[in-house]
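I hope you will forgive my troubling you with a question about protein structure. The matter concerns a single protein, recorded as an amino acid sequence and a row of backbone structure tokens. Please examine both parts with care and let me know of anything in them that strikes you as inconsistent. Here, with my thanks, is the record as I have it:
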Amino acid sequence: MDSIVAGIDVGGTAKGFHAVALRKGKFMGRSHFSTALEASDWCRDMHADIVAVDAPCQWSTTGRARPAERALTAARIFAYATPTLEVAEAKAFYRWMLNGAALYRLLEREYTLLDGRAPNGRTCLETFPHAAACALAGRILPARQKCTNRREVLRHAGIDTAMLTNIDYVDAALCAVVADSVRKGEFTKYGDATSGFIFVPNPLATFSQQ
């Protein structure tokens, strides 16, 4: 039986966690949670083998952007710079990153954080939906048109978007596509094991750039 993969879009206190599960590109389920514990339990109950999370897996140790984020910027993909833990705890804006850190801690009870090599057993990893969409399209997509562009990318990837009723579920589905690309060994990674990798899928051969 083919593996189930999951993607989780992480938000702040009000938005919470949106999750989507796929098997061989087919929609297996979606859900919304208020807490990291609920989200991690769902991944386990769905028997997901690989979970891709839209949140930093490591804090900055320097106060500057992590190498993965600097590499994305060099590729013309902007990502929020991850702060130190102390800065994150002091500013409300970073509540979503703290929620992501809580989710990783819970997932790592059963999932190994991917260190850049091929996954071996249950694995969790960091991704970024905008970077994933650009990677699948093979070009930089304008962020201001993300609702339209990301749905189009998912459709080209063979994903039924009918159940993705808001952008948070769309982003969770993109995370799940990344998880599946990692399962198949078809991915690119940015960063390093110390500061954390950000994974994106390889481009879609069928994607139209018109």
Q: What stands out?
A: Strands lie at 4-10, 17-23, 26-33, 48-54, 112-113, 123-127, 187-192, 196-201. The chain has seven helices and eight strands. The longest strand covers residues 26-33. The longest helix spans residues 167-183.
